[in-house]
Design goal:
Helix content: 40-55%
Strand content: 15-25%
Structural class: alpha/beta
Number of helices: 8
Order of helices and strands: EHEHEEEHEHEHEEEEHEHHEE
Shape: elongated
Number of strands: 14
Largest sheet: 5 strands, parallel
Distance between the termini: 33 Å
Length: 217
C-alpha cells in the first residue's frame, strides 16, 4: 500500500513516516500543497494523509476541489482543530479525521482501514515524442522498444517526464532517486544520466541545461 503524507512539521512528519513504514506501507512525503499536488500528478496512492493547516492554505479546500473533479483516494486529516464544526467539515470531504496529539498506533490502524476501503487511483502514462513511461506497470519504451531500467534510472526518467519538457535541477533528481543524503557535487547523477542516455539511444532526447540540471526534449 502506498501513502502520501503531507505535513509541514518536520518532527511529526518524520515520526508518522517512520511509523507507517514500520507497519509495511510505502510512504511519499510532502511539506505543502504544491508538493502534494506534484506527487499526486505522477503517482497513484491507496490513501492520503493531510495536516489540515498547511503553508499556502487549508488542505480541506484542496481536497474538496479534487473531490469535485472525481478524485477517489481516501483521505485522513490530521489537525489540532477539534471543534465539532471542524470535524463535520473534515468528514464532509475527507474519510477520517484524527485530532492532535494522537497515538501512532491509532493513526496506522486508521490508515490501514482506509486503504481497505478504497482503491489506488489510476497512474497516468507519461510520454514525450516516442518515449513513454507507465508508472503503474513500471515499464518504459522508446519507439515501442522496451527499456531495461534500474529502479533509480526509472525514478529519474519519471521525474524528467513529469516536468513536461521543463528543466529539473540536479538536487531534485538526486533527491528523487537516492534516499540517503548525497552531496549535490557528487557524480552519482552524472553516471546515471550517462547510462540512461545509452539506454534511450538516438536521437538524443535527454539534454543538459548548464548550471541547472537536465530536461527531456
Amino acid at each position: 500500500m502506498r501513502i502520501l503524507l503531507t505535513e509541514d512539521d518536520e518532527g511529526l512528519r518524520l515520526a508518522v513516516d517512520v511509523s507507517l513504514r514500520g507497519a509495511g506501507f510505502a510512504v511519499d512525503t510532502a511539506v505543502d500543497l504544491p508538493d502534494a499536488d506534484e506527487a499526486l500528478s505522477v503517482n497513484g496512492y491507496d490513501c492520503a494523509v493531510f495536516d489540515r493547516m498547511l503553508p499556502g492554505g487549508d488542505a480541506l479546500r484542496y481536497v474538496a476541489e479534487r473531490r469535485r473533479a472525481g478524485w477517489p483516494v481516501p483521505v485522513l486529516f490530521l489537525t489540532g482543530r477539534d471543534a465539532v464544526s471542524d470535524r463535520i467539515d473534515g468528514l464532509a470531504w475527507g474519510d477520517d479525521y484524527l485530532g492532535k496529539p494522537f497515538a501512532m498506533s491509532e493513526l496506522v490502524a486508521r490508515v490501514r482501514s482506509l486503504c481497505r476501503r478504497g482503491g489506488t487511483s489510476p497512474t497516468p502514462v507519461l510520454w514525450i515524442g516516442d518515449l513513454e513511461l507507465d508508472p503503474g506497470r513500471h515499464e518504459a519504451r522508446r519507439a515501442g522498444r522496451a527499456l531495461a531500467l534500474t529502479a533509480k534510472e526509472f525514478a529519474v526518467l519519471r521525474r524528467l517526464l513529469a516536468a513536461g519538457g521543463e528543466p529539473v535541477r540536479r538536487s531534485e533528481l538526486i533527491a528523487t532517486a537516492w534516499d540517503e543524503l548525497v552531496p549535490p557535487a557528487s557524480n552519482v547523477l552524472d553516471v546515471l544520466i550517462a547510462q540512461l542516455r545509452r539506454k534511450l539511444g538516438p536521437p538524443a532526447v535527454l539534454h543538459t541545461v548548464r548550471g541547472v540540471g537536465y530536461l527531456l526534449r
